[in-house]
Each structure stands twice: as structure tokens, then as C-alpha cells.
UniProtKB/TrEMBL annotation:
Entry annotated with the keyword Protease: yes
Superkingdom of origin organism: Eukaryota
Species this chain originates from: Dichanthelium oligosanthes
Alphabetical UniProt keywords: Aspartyl protease, Glycoprotein, Hydrolase, Protease, Signal
Recorded family membership: Belongs to the peptidase A1 family.
Name this polypeptide is given: Aspartic proteinase-like protein 2
Domain Peptidase A1: 88-440
Amino acid sequence: MAPSPRASSLSCVLLILALSVALAPAPASATGVFRVRRKFPRHGGVLGEAEEHLAALRRHDGRRHGRLLGAVDLPLGGVGLPTETGLYFTRIEIGAPPKGYYVQVDTGSDILWVNCIRCDGCPTRSGLGIELTQYDPAGSGSTVGCDQEFCVTNNGGVPPSTCSSESPCQFRITYGDGSSTTGFFVTDFLQYDQVSGNGQIAPSNASITFGCGAQLGGDLGSSNEALDGILGFGQSDSSMLSQLAAAGKVPKIFAHCLDTVNGGGIFAIGNVVQPKVQTTPLVPNMTHYNVNLKGISVGGATLQLPTSTFNTDESKGTIIDSGTTLAYLPDSVYKTLMAAVFNKYQDMAIHNYQDFLCFQFSGSVDDGFPVITFSFEGDLVLNVNPHDYLFQNGNDLYCVGFLNGGLQTKDGKDMVLLGDLVLSNKLVVYDLENQVIGWTDYNCSSSIKIKDDKTGSVYTVDAHNISTAWRFQWHESLILLLVTTIWSYLMF
Ligand SMILES: *[C@@H]1O[C@H](CO)[C@@H](O)[C@H](O)[C@H]1NC(C)=O
Ligand SMILES: *[C@@H]1O[C@H](CO)[C@@H](O)[C@H](O)[C@H]1NC(C)=O
Ligand SMILES: *[C@@H]1O[C@H](CO)[C@@H](O)[C@H](O)[C@H]1NC(C)=O
Ligand SMILES: *[C@@H]1O[C@H](CO)[C@@H](O)[C@H](O)[C@H]1NC(C)=O
């Protein structure tokens, strides 16, 4: 579409969200400062530690699935602590004057919420080595009333039934184990940096509505991985991204690229033009990022699978979830897939360790094992290389990252849940404007190009070299410090 004369006069900027930088000072750079850190390392170190590492990954995913499925009302397992259920976190700044808050970056939930001052049952300490801060709305914030537009819109067009004059717009999120977060919505300034052209950064802000957590119910009080809240990149109109998009600050498109080898990464909002990605439609009206899986092949040979594998409804189908570490398959799919993967090694001794299949292997797994390919509607494929799906634990010990029916529920066992295991080392683009998701294999330590559709300007967004920053500031388990760059164009 040709830009209108007015539009073409608009300045094109990089918008950097919320600026984190808790650790070492950010390198002076025109591109990104929204840093996302990963809670778990991808690979275990020495044997013993490696076993504990696998167990930790498994526990993490169990908790997350309790929460993922909470939205679709299935019987659930998992501990359910909200901030234990994601992999990445960042620091955002809210208020005037601004204060920093550490939040989970989560594509599996919708709203931004932070623990509020005097919160009942909220964590006060975190094993992640960060200082927790409770948000005080009495500063520059204002409470959203239940009869206000935000509340009405997010309640399906009518005020909540309990709404009486002056009462706040409340939220309640129930997790897998029945524990919950309740609170109310407030509106306050989100602070971010705006970069126009190369190397020019200016502080800016937007008014957004988010949740103020007043009470954590159930077993949510203590956690090794406690954070101040969650930043949801789900699809709903109440998300931060939707609000910034509605205000004309950003397009409703975001992308991530997570490098598990070098630890680089990019998390960007904007229209990615390089690399190009092929896309598949999102299944409409789903809570999560559901896609239509069409087939699975191993080393080029298509697996014969029950047709129900490819159904799509709330309790079946395929979910793309970057907050899940591994990948989970229905029983029948898992067994057929593993048989094909180990077809060449009929006599290999395979041990079951905490639901993982583990085995001894010397030599290159990429030479010894087949590529697994998931095919989706629209001819989009997802190739998973042996070095991605086989975790090395100790010298010659490998474990398979695919797990059997990890959703722990009767119905959930029929779902395919694809997490970081298959999403890493790829640029993954969530184009919510066109309701598609796509990806391509990519070097996530390199750079991508993002285009301002209004002016046609194209900017390079670099991944950051993060290894020195975390190494001396952080406990070793916080391996990947990922850099997030938020791109946008300004309307005014
Ligand atoms: C928001 O940004 C505007 C324009 O830069 C500035 O004048 C204003 O003081 C900022 N407000 C806050 C609360 O930071
Ligand atoms: C999705 O939901 C909208 C609004 O409820 C409805 O109009 C539309 O038909 C639904 N689409 C599908 C494919 O179910
Ligand atoms: C990925 O990109 C980085 C930065 O450009 C480069 O140093 C590295 O060698 C690349 N890795 C591969 C495997 O090409
Ligand atoms: C990136 O980090 C590595 C490891 O600390 C270091 O050797 C390298 O020089 C760094 N590269 C740049 C461009 O800073």
C-alpha cells in the first residue's frame, strides 16, 4: 500500500521498551535494550548436575502446563506458581517517576500484571538474585472502574455483573492447582526509549492499563524463581502489545529468536522483512497460539499417525509455546516417532530417566540421527535437528527432549505442545494483524531487518553479545541473557 503524504512525513523510530539493564551497563547501541533473561540453561553441565537439570526442566514444564490448561478448564496438575511457569524475564519501568519491575515474558498469557503494594501472600524475595518491588498505584497510577471501557470490553461488552459505581475493574487468574492471583486494573505510564535513526535514543512513555496483584491465593507465596509479575504476549485486546498497537505506537506483530548455542537473542515488535518467513494461519478463537499440524516425518519418511492427531479444538491440536522448555506429544505420536528415530539402533540400550529416554552415543548425533519435520497448513515446515532434540548430558550420554503426553490431563494428552526445544535457533514471527505465525531457521546471534511500513525505512536490529554481562553478575543457572529490541513507528 502506498503511504499517504501525511503518513510518509511521520518519523520512523525504534521504540525500545523498558529498558532493563539490571546487570552490566548496556553497550551503547542504537538497537535494543529490552533484555530478556532465561531462567534455565539449555544444557546440563557435568553428570549429576545434568540429572538435576533435566528434573528441573520437567518440573518447570509441569507447572506451566497446569497454567496453560487453566484457561481451557481441564483437570490439572502442577504447582502453578505463576512466575515459575515461564522461561524468560525482563525488567520494565512503570510510573512517574519510574520504578523497575522484573516480569515474566510470556506468550501463553494475555495481561501485564505486577504485584501491588500490601499484596497479600506475594513473594518478597527471589532466588533469581533480583530485588523484588511492589507497585504502588498511589503514585502516578489511577484505578480503572468496572464501568470503564477497558473493563467492559474485556468482559465481552458488558460491565461485570458485580459492578457497582466506584468499584474497581477486577481480575482473577486461576492456575492449574487452584491457586490464583486476584487484583484490579490500574492505568499508569509505561516508560520506554525511543530511537530514531542510528544511535539516537530518547525516553518516552505510553499510558497503559495493567493488573495490580492484590492477593495471591493458594500455595503461591514462596518461590525460588519469584518475579514481580508477568508480561503477557497473548492475543487478547487487553495485552500490552494490543494497547500499544491500538494507540498507534506499534504494529501488532512480534518476533523472537533464541540462540541456545551462543546465548544471543532478539525479541522484537515490528514487521520483520529479513529474514523472510513462511507462515501458517493461527486457528481462530483459541486462547493460545494454535496451528494446524498436517504431518510429521522422520528423515524424510512420513509417519503413519491417527487422524485425531491433526484435529483442532480446545483439547486437541497443536500449540506453539515459547514458555515451555521441551516438546510434548500424544502417546501414539510419541511412540511412533521414537520408533522411527531409533529405527537404526534396534539393539541400543535406552534408559528411562524421569520420563526422558536416555542412551549412550559417541560421535556426532547429527550424523547418527534423523531430522524430524513437522508440516503445517500452508506448506510451512519445522525442522528439528538431532542436536536440538537430543540433550547432551555428560560425555556420551544423550536424552531425547520430546516427552510423552506431558500435559498430565486426560484430554490434554491428545495435544501436541511445541516449546523451546523446537523453537530455538529460529526466527519466530507472530503476526497478529494477519493472524498467522511463521518461522525460519536462523542464526539468532546475528541481526534481523525490520521495516516501517509507513515510510519504507528498514532498520537492522542486532542480537547482543551477552555472555560477558551475565557471567560475572549472575548465578550460572541464568545462562541466557537475551536482548529484546522493540521496534515501532510513531504516529505523532
Ligand atoms: C512522557 O513523555 C512526554 C514526551 O516526551 C514527556 O513530556 C512527559 O513528561 C512524559 N511523562 C512521564 C510521566 O514520564
Ligand atoms: C470467532 O469468534 C468470533 C466472535 O465470537 C465469531 O464471529 C467467529 O465466527 C469465530 N470464528 C470461528 C472460526 O469460530
Ligand atoms: C552467527 O552470527 C554471529 C554474529 O554475526 C557470528 O559471529 C557467528 O559466527 C554466526 N554463527 C554461525 C553458525 O554462522
Ligand atoms: C562476545 O563475547 C565473547 C565471550 O565473552 C568475547 O570473546 C567476544 O570478544 C565478544 N565479542 C564482542 C564483539 O564483543
